[in-house]
């Protein structure tokens, strides 16, 4: 039996009276159009396999970003797209670079596929040091904005990294890009080695539907298709396909939920700072916070006792931080109220 060390996702408690701010799910429901589109698929066509090339959704996403459908790859959540990318583009013996503090699935995939990697330390204030990613031997991957820090690199900085890695695949994981950043999709026509990966799980409220995608040059997409078709031709089911397409058609709803979250984040950041927290500058639907006087793990436990779940990472450099997803205004009001109560005691 293979002894891989698996990724540990945030807790998914079953009780309904809890406030769940620990896995960066969207607090708002998916667009009503998505629910309608999925319901319309609940019929006898489910006996048939879904279309393996997912052409209609690739077209929809291609049109949305102004790229050709052959520059789009669809997967069962972006985690699957990431896994296929590690298989397709990285080679044993040539270390991949990613930050020391980042999405914890990267080292898991690297060891699962027996790839070497080196971590690049974030700066003292948790920024990604762009020159740390120059001249990689085996390729580069990081989220922009980074997780769990929430900090964002500008497209100029991304472009500098691309210029210094002309022959290596550079993957930008944009799971949180819709909460205030600018997508690197704009750069794919100039950089054939750039792959941008996004998901419907966060900004489109569809973590339960499992749809992610990659956008890049045709040779990269071709590489991903080779892996997919050697693994599972039907990664996306009929319901997911219908729901995903409907989500891209309801642009108004999408913009509205994203801006609600960004506004709530701004308000919560200010309130947290007033309580004595240091809050990293976030371009995501979560904040990464630390308190001068109050132990993070203890705070995590005390919030949990009040049925409020946030994420604590018992890891070097960040073990005095908590990652708190942005919920609805009501949820954040209760979070702030309990926090004040705990800090006041
Ligand atoms: C949530 C997240 C993902 C995974 O998203 P799925 O599409 O739900 O698999 C990928 N990368 C980062 C950085 C994330 O935070």
- Name the shape in a single word: globular
Question: What's the assembly state of these chains?
Answer: single chain
| Nearest-integer average pLDDT | 96
- Amount of beta strand: 5-15%
Order of strands across the widest beta sheet?
Answer: 2-8-7-6-5
Please summarize the sheet with the most strands: 5 strands, mixed
Q: What level of helicity do the residues show?
A: 25-40%
| Topology order in helix (H) and strand (E) letters | EHHEHEHEEHEEEHHHEEHEEEH
Q: What structural category characterises the helix and strand content?
A: alpha/beta
Number of E strands: 13
Bound molecules: pyridoxal-5'-phosphate
Provide a count of the helices: 10
Distance between the termini: 50 Å
Low-pLDDT residue spans: none
Task: Describe this protein's structure.
This protein is α/β, with parallel strands linked by helices and 345 residues long. The chain contains 10 helices and 13 strands. Strand 9 and strand 10 (286-291) form a beta hairpin. Helix 2 (55-65) packs parallel to helix 7 and helix 3 crosses helix 4. It starts with 18 loop residues before the first strand and ends with a helix. The structure holds pyridoxal-5'-phosphate. The site of pyridoxal-5'-phosphate has 13 residues, from helix 3.
């Amino acid at each position: 039996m293979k002894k891989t060390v698996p990724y540990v996702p945030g807790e998914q408690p079953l009780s309904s009276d809890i406030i769940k701010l620990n896995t960066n799910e969207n607090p708002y429901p998916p667009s009503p159009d998505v629910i309608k589109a999925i319901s319309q698929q609940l019929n006898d066509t489910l006996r048939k396999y879904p279309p393996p090339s997912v052409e209609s959704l690739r077209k929809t996403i291609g049109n949305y970003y102004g790229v050709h459908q052959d520059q789009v790859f669809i997967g069962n959540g972006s985690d699957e797209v990431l896994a296929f990318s590690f298989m397709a583009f990285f080679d044993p013996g040539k270390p991949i670079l990613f930050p020391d503090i980042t999405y914890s699935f990267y080292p898991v995939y690297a060891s699962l596929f027996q790839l070497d990697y080196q971590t690049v330390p974030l700066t003292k204030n948790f920024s990604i040091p762009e020159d740390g990613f120059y001249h990689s031997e085996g390729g580069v991957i990081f989220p922009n904005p980074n997780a769990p820090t929430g900090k964002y690199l500008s497209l100029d900085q991304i472009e500098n990294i691309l210029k210094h890695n002309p022959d290596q695949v550079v993957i930008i994981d944009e799971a949180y890009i819709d909460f205030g950043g600018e997508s690197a999709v704009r750069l794919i026509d100039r950089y054939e080695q750039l792959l941008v990966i996004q998901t419907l799980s966060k900004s489109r409220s569809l973590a339960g539907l499992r749809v992610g995608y990659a956008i890049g040059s045709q040779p990269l997409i071709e590489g991903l298709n080779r892996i997919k078709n050697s693994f599972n031709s039907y990664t996306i089911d009929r319901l997911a396909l219908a729901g995903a397409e409907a989500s891209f058609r309801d642009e108004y709803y999408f913009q509205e939920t994203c801006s609600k979250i960004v506004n709530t984040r701004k308000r919560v950041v200010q309130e947290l700072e007033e309580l004595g927290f240091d809050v990293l500058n976030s371009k995501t639907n979560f904040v990464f916070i630390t308190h001068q006087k109050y132990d993070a793990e203890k705070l995590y436990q005390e919030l949990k006792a009040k049925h409020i779940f946030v994420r604590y990472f018992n890891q070097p450099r960040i073990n005095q931080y908590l990652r708190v997803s942005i919920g609805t205004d009501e949820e954040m009001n209760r979070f702030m109220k309990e926090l004040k109560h705990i800090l006041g005691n």
